[in-house]
């Protein structure tokens, strides 16, 4: 199977990598670089840093990693919450993603920015994106990347990591422009661990 090797100097916006027992999320941003990821209880949230200018953009602060049912959800916006809530209600991962992505749809900003999300459970990993022109949700058996811009359809991705720290570091250091912060999630049996990179 062909693997995707990133080109340098390319801006792909926010992106996730989802595979069996692993997930990662990177915030890349041209417009709102002053952000970080914080942990509150068992949820990871993207928030402005202390020196960020105030904004009324509704899409720049949100939960990006959250448990749902027996799984973990990653994503680039407020849809992470309804995906997790559907998993809590017993929906299959595919259905939770389809339902929440379809309900909230792409972001109504200047770019029609897509919503991206993934679910990593004990026996499956599922990735999804909703764009103006498409809704794609599919199970993955190898690490797979999807991004808000340029790579806005799931693509195989070379991602060999063994811990949440390595997962977060790998996406933060990936050769795409305007890295801001990142989170990584790794499952071991029924347990999940996560890690954050803010720099
Ligand atoms: N999730 C995020 O962290 C996020 N950051 C920025 N956006 C949206 O994407 C637009 C473009 O942002 P940028 O130029 O930083 O790629 C922003 O105006 C905002 O509407 C986001 N929405 C989705 O990715």
UniProtKB/TrEMBL annotation:
GO terms for biological process: 'de novo' IMP biosynthetic process. Residues 11-189 form the Inosine monophosphate cyclohydrolase-like domain. Keywords: Hydrolase, Purine biosynthesis. It comes from the Archaea. Catalyzes the cyclization of 5-formylamidoimidazole-4-carboxamide ribonucleotide to IMP. HAMAP family: IMP_cyclohydrol. This is IMP cyclohydrolase. It catalyses: IMP + H2O = 5-formamido-1-(5-phospho-D-ribosyl)imidazole-4-carboxamide. Pathway: Purine metabolism; IMP biosynthesis via de novo pathway; IMP from 5-formamido-1-(5-phospho-D-ribosyl)imidazole-4-carboxamide: step 1/1. It comes from Halanaeroarchaeum sulfurireducens.
């Amino acid at each position: 199977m062909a693997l995707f090797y990133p080109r340098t100097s390319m801006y792909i916006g926010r992106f996730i990598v989802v595979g069996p027992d692993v997930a990662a999320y990177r915030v890349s941003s041209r417009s709102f670089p002053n952000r970080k990821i914080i942990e509150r209880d068992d949820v990871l949230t993207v928030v402005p840093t202390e020196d960020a200018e105030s904004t009324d953009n509704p899409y720049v602060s949100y939960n990006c990693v959250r448990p749902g049912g027996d799984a973990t959800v990653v994503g680039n916006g407020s849809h992470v919450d309804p995906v997790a809530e559907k998993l809590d209600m017993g929906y299959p991962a595919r259905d939770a993603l389809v339902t929440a992505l379809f309900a909230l749809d792409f972001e109504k900003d200047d770019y029609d920015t897509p919503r991206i999300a993934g679910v990593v459970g004990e026996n499956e990993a599922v990735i999804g994106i909703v764009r103006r022109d498409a809704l794609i949700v599919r199970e993955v058996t190898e690490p797979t990347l999807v991004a808000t811009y340029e790579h806005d359809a799931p693509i195989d991705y070379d991602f060999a990591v063994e811990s949440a720290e390595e997962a977060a570091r790998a996406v933060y250091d990936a050769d795409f422009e305007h890295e801001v912060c990142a989170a990584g999630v790794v499952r071991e049996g029924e347990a999940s661990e996560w890690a954050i990179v803010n720099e």
